[in-house]
Amino acid sequence: MPDHEQYRPNVGIVIFNKNANIWIGKRADIKKLCAWQMPQGGIDTNESALKAAIRETYEETGIKSIKHIASINEWIKYKLPIDIAKNKWNGKFVGQMQKWFLFYFFGDDSEVNINSYKNPEFSAWKWADTKYIENNVTEFRKSVYKTVFEKFEADIKNETN
Asked: How far apart, in Å, are the Cα atoms of 78 and each of 12, 59, 111, 124?
């Protein structure tokens, strides 16, 4: 039986620093405690996934001082809870399928600006380890983040040693 469910093409971004901590932002539109996530966003028409990841990084974090380290080329899918899926994107998608990118941040924390766009995605940000992130993201993202961290773990260690 064919899969007729629609997933929104998207990029996910892991940004790590010299201490091997990962950038996360607290979603501005969710009041729950477990509302932290890494940057992500849609891929524009005729835009490569890598260019989308660089654009989304800047739009959501203000960060420009990044070096591309690795990518996960296969799509990683997740479904949104039904009540969210019905209201987002006019109900067109059941979730997102993402290509993930790993970037090393070599700048200064003063570069981070989560308010550079008129509708900021995040209300706060911090550097955190993978365990903290896995424990403080929405339930429907947990397995995706676990997979992504496992795939990028060696690359992060190699770059920070």
From this structure: 12, 23, 31, 24
- 102-149 residue pLDDT tens: 999 999 999 999 998 888 999 999 999 999 999 999 899 999 999 999
Helices (H) and strands (E) in the chain, counts: 4, 7
Exposure string for 85-112, b = 16+ CB within 10 A, e = fewer? beeeeeeebbbbebbbbbbbbeeeeeeb
Say which DSSP state 143 is in: H
* Best CATH choice for the domain 7-160 from the list 3.90.79.10, 3.40.50.1000, 3.40.50.1240, 1.10.10.10: 3.90.79.10
Residue pLDDT, tens place only, 6-35: 999 999 999 999 999 999 999 988 776 678
Where do the domains of the chain lie?
A: 7-160
Instruction: State the pairing for strand pair 40-42/36-37.
Output: unpaired
